[in-house]
Amino acid sequence: MTLTQRKDLLVRLGNYMQGNSEGWQMAKRKAYLDNNWFIEQFVDLAIKNIVDHFLQPHQLDELAQRYNLPQERALPKKVGIVMAGNIPLVGFHDFLCVFLSGHTALIKPSSKDEALIGHIVQQLHEWAPETSDTVAILPLLKGCDAYIATGSNNSGRYFEHYFAKYPHIIRRNRTSVAVLTGEETERELEQLADDIHLYFGLGCRNVTKLYVPEGYDFVPLLDALRKYSNLGDHNKFKNNYDYQLAGHIINNRYYMTNGSILLVEDPSPFAPISQVHYEFYKNAADVAAALSENESIQCVTGRHHTPFGAAQVPGICDFADGVDTMEFLNKL
Fold first, then answer.
1. 168, β-bridge pairs
2. CA 221, CA 193: separation in Å to the nearest integer?
3. Proportion of the chain above pLDDT 90, given as a percent
4. Hey, which bits of the chain come out as E strands?
5. What is the mean pLDDT of residues 261-271?
6. pLDDT band for position 44 (cuts 50, 70, 90)
7. From its phi and psi, is residue 102 left (phi > 0), alpha (psi between -120 and 50) or beta?
8. Beta strands of 129-206 (E only): which ranges?
9. Residue 202: which of 86, 97, 61 has the closest Cα?
C-alpha cells in the first residue's frame, strides 16, 4: 500500500470508530467483559481521543510530512508490538506509527485489552485485504526485525534480555504528577480531577502525586474531586479504596478523604488505585528541576507545565517516555 492509501484507511477507521455498527458495539461490550475496568464511559473516551487527536487527515499529514515518510517503503521491516492493557487501546499509537511508516505491524495484545484492537485489525482486513500482509494479531512474536514493548518494570527486564540483539523500544512503569500553586481556579481543580480519575487512575499519564506549597488548603481540591464520586459505585475501585482506608486506620496514619479518594503524604510518585500522594514544597523551581531528572515521570501538569485536564489527551506527535517512535522506525 502507498502512504496515501494508508492515510485514507486510517481516516476511514476514525470514522468507523465514531459510529455504532453492531460489530464495533459488540467489541466494546466484550472489552468490558474481558476487563471490568473498561467501563463504557472510559472506553468511549479513549476512542474519542484517538479519533480526535490521531486520526484526522491534517494530523496524519503532519506526522507523515514531519518524518518524510515515503509513499512506498522499499524494505519494510517486521516490527513486533507488545501492548499493555492498563487503559483501553493504550497501544494504538504504536500500531498507528508502524502502519503509517510502511513497516509491518505484528501485534501481541494484552489479554486485558484484546477485543478492541482485534476488531480494528479485522476491520482493516475486510476493507483492504492487502493489509493482511502488513498488520496481524499474533499470540507470540518471533522472527521480527525490531520490537516495541510496553509493560511493568519486571516485564521490562525480561524484554531487555529477550530483545537485546534487535533494535527495540522498551517502556516500563511511569506515572504523572501535578505541581500546584494554591491559586488554582475551581475550573482548574475540576480539570485536575480528570487527570487523576480518568480510567480509574490506571494510566501512566494519570496524576498520582501532587506537589503543593506549604500551608496548602486541600478542601477546594477534595470538593473538586467529588466530580468522580460515582467511581465509588464500581466494585473493583471500591474494594481498593476500602483496603487502603483500612490500612491507614489500622496503622494510625494521617489521611484525607472525600469518601471516594484518599490523599496521603508520601514521597513516592506512585500511588495505589483510589489514592493520591502529596508532598509539600518551598520552591517550585526546585520541584520542576527534580522532576525533569526523574525517569519515572511521564507527564507534569500545572500552570507552567501541561495544562490541567490535558494529561490524558496526548497529540499525535507526543511519544510515550519521550522516545521518538517515528524516528526509531525511520532508522530501521
1. 147
2. 8
3. 96
4. 78-82, 104-108, 135-137, 146-150, 168-171, 175-179, 207-213, 256-257, 262-265, 275-281, 297-301
5. 97
6. very high
7. left
8. 135-137, 146-150, 168-171, 175-179
9. 86
Q: Are 326 and 320 in contact (CB under 8 A)?
A: no
Nearest to 121 by CA among 142, 107, 140, 139: 107
Question: What angle in degrees, to the nearest 10, is found between the helix axes of 3-17 and 92-101?
Answer: 150
User: In which order are the strands placed within the sheet that holds 146-150?
Assistant: 135-137, 104-108, 78-82, 146-150, 168-171
Euclidean distance between CA atoms 97 and 120, whole angstroms: 15
pLDDT digits (tens, 9 = 90+) for 194-253: 999 999 999 999 999 999 999 999 999 999 999 999 999 999 999 999 999 999 999 999
Q: Which of 29-33, 106-110, 152-156 shows the lowest per-residue confidence on average (mean pLDDT)?
A: 152-156
3-state secondary structure 69-132: CCCCCCCCCEEEEECCCCCCCCCHHHHHHHHHHCCEEEEECCCCCCHHHHHHHHHHHHHCHHHH
Residue 186 grid coordinates: 475551581
From the centroid of its chain, how far is CA 282?
Answer: 31
Q: Print burial letters for 98-128: b (CB count within 10 Å at least 16), e (below 16).
A: bbbbbbbbbbbbbebbbbbbbbbbebbeeeb
Euclidean distance between CA atoms 14 and 308, whole angstroms: 26
* pLDDT-wise least confident of 8-12, 236-240, 285-289: 285-289
Cell of 249: 486506620
Distance CA 104, CA 86 (A): 24
| CB of 64 closer than 8 Å to CB of 7 | yes
What mean pLDDT is reported for the chain? 96
